[in-house]
UniProtKB/TrEMBL annotation:
GO terms for cellular component: membrane. Residues 1-20 form the signal peptide. Keywords: Oxidoreductase, Signal. The keyword Metal-binding does not apply. It comes from Talaromyces rugulosus. Pathway: Cofactor biosynthesis; D-erythroascorbate biosynthesis; dehydro-D-arabinono-1,4-lactone from D-arabinose: step 2/2. PROSITE patterns: FAD_PCMH. This is D-arabinono-1,4-lactone oxidase. Residues 30-207 form the FAD-binding PCMH-type domain. Its EC number is 1.1.3.37. One of its GO terms (molecular function) is D-arabinono-1,4-lactone oxidase activity. The keyword Transmembrane does not apply.
Length: 479
């Protein structure tokens, strides 16, 4: 007897009972009402579901863990369409194969970064690169270009050497370095627009120990001087993150007070064989005793990234993260800080607490939609990018303050984008418009040609994708 899959049962249940599923991102400000949440058991069930929904032209939004600050994962709301609209999670695809002979790992789309990190560690392996937190689903993180810090290190998508993806008709395509290397450049960061990725293969490396050094630095309101000094430090340290300057909200003066000190951490390989102790003081997310000088040693994953138990900062954030050629860094960081200060008088909402500016670096790459793609870079530049992040942190989860700060966050790109060749993180604050995207991502036409092949009926798009990528043929995706 053929057993109907869970996905099919859910669709039938919806037809009979009119069920609905409300999707939220991690901080509940991105939401939509779908007809159902579908979590198929395996790749075959995903393909079957897609094949059936293609006939109907249903809207389908594949999601990871919803750890984004923008509308990338928003489904088509039920109220906007007569078609069915589904949230699809591939969380049940949990196969894993470690190939130590060629140092690769192949895994299903259900693996979260933290679980995969633990699995690699247990096998004396490590990622080439990793973000600061591990809360994401791996495919979800890779699909937006999630990254850590390192001038000779790529984002986490750069480790992908192959993947399996289903198009909107449920057809499987196997993409890899050997057979379709050029297409892989489109699929490494696909923003959920090119189909449902069911499996990935990444390059891994033998694990190694690193020494993490944290230093406290004095802040100064001479920002040009401070950021020029930081730029010099990036020449000394390949893998470094600067946490600061920090500003505290002063309710009396209605202004941001610059904290006297900030700190940075840098990482370097070591042969030290003593105790592993970096996880005793995470500091990756504001946890622990961060502003102090210390040295710790650990396995690389545990030294550069933070497991869920090390994440303590869960207020509503507004956040921007902008990538720009490192040569422009000191001037850009100065002007970002001055622009923020010029906007402070409009920050009237009551629950501001702290503002942190962070600085990282990343090696450029050739992935079509990578924020550090080098396609429009002046050849005289190094191909290394600086990353400027600003976090606006609140006293508590207050929507008014969040929206106020997000409105401000959106203004940095129009202000500085053209001047410094800035590209925003896809899942933080979004790019300004399709014209800007085309300029900063010269391979966008090639990406959209593949998108047309993979999704001819525009079932995978949402407002974010249509407007930010300028997918003209999908402009009427709601009709
Ligand atoms: C607290 C916090 C900390 C963060 N830290 C960092 C950091 O250190 N560095 C950094 O660069 N970013 C960071 N980010 C951003 C985060 O890494 C990205 O937003 C990431 O994309 C989120 O992953 P997710 O699994 O939650 O994916 P989601 O937000 O759910 O999805 C992201 C994209 O992937 C697509 N997708 C998901 N699964 C599939 C699939 N199977 N097939 C095809 N497409 C798929 C979705 O459609 C969507 O377009 C952070 C975000 C938060 C909220």
């Amino acid at each position: 007897m053929v057993r109907p899959s869970l996905a099919i049962l859910l669709v039938l249940a919806h037809a009979v009972f009119g069920t609905a599923y409300r999707w939220f991102n991690w901080q509940y400000e991105v939401t939509c009402e779908s007809d159902a949440y579908i979590a198929p058991d395996d790749e075959e069930a995903v393909a079957k579901f897609l094949h059936e929904q293609f006939v109907e032209g249903s809207h389908i939004k594949v999601v990871g863990n919803g750890h984004g600050f923008g509308n990338l994962t928003q489904c088509v709301d039920q109220t906007l369409t007569k078609k069915q609209s589904y949230i699809v999670s591939l969380t049940n695809l949990k196969e894993l194969h470690i190939h130590k002979n060629n140092m690769t790992v192949t895994f299903g789309a259900g693996w979260d970064v933290n679980d995969l990190a633990e699995e690699l560690k247990a096998n004396d392996l490590s990622f080439n690169s990793l973000g600061v937190e591990r809360v994401q689903n791996f495919v979800g993180a890779a699909s937006t270009g999630t990254h850590g810090s390192g001038s000779s290190m790529g984002n986490i998508a750069s480790q992908i050497i192959g993947l399996r993806v289903l198009d909107s008709q449920g057809n499987l395509r196997v993409i890899n370095e050997k057979n379709n290397a050029e297409e892989l450049k489109a699929f490494r960061i696909s923003l959920g627009a090119l189909g449902l990725i069911t499996e990935m293969t990444i390059k891994v490396i033998p694990t190694y120990r690193v020494k993490k050094t944290t230093k406290v630095l004095n802040a100064t309101s001479d920002y040009s001087k401070m950021y020029s000094q930081i730029a010099e430090l990036y020449k000394e340290h390949d893998r470094m993150t600067v946490w600061g300057p920090h500003f505290d909200w002063n309710a009396e003066t209605q202004d941001w007070d610059l904290e006297a000190t900030y700190f940075l951490s840098y990482w370097e390989p070591t042969d030290y064989a003593g105790a592993s102790n970096c996880t005793l003081n995470y500091c990756a997310n504001g946890c622990g005793d961060c502003k102090k000088e210390y040295i710790c040693y650990d396995e690389v994953i545990d030294s550069v990234s933070c497991p869920p138990q090390g994440v303590c900062n869960r207020e509503f954030y507004a956040e921007i993260e902008h990538f720009l050629p490192i040569e422009y860094y000191a001037e850009a960081a100065t002007n970002y800080t001055l622009f923020q200060q010029s906007q402070t008088p409009r920050m009237k909402a009551p629950y501001n607490q702290q503002m942190v500016i962070q600085h990282r670096t990343l090696k450029g790459d050739d992935t079509y939609m990578s924020p550090v793609n080098t396609y429009n870079l002046d050849p005289k530049l190094s191909g290394v990018f600086a990353i400027i992040e600003i976090d606006w942190i609140q006293e508590y989860d207050n929507f008014t303050t969040l929206w106020q700060n997000q409105e401000l966050a959106f203004e940095f790109l129009p202000q500085f984008g053209e001047t410094y060749n800035v590209r925003p993180h896809w899942n933080k604050m979004s790019p300004a418009n399709a014209t800007y995207t085309q300029e900063k991502f010269p391979k966008l036409p090639e990406f959209l040609a593949i998108q047309q092949r993979q999704d001819p009926k525009c079932q995978f798009v949402n407002e974010f994708l249509v407007s930010q990528l300028g997918i003209a043929r999908c402009a009427r995706y709601l009709s």
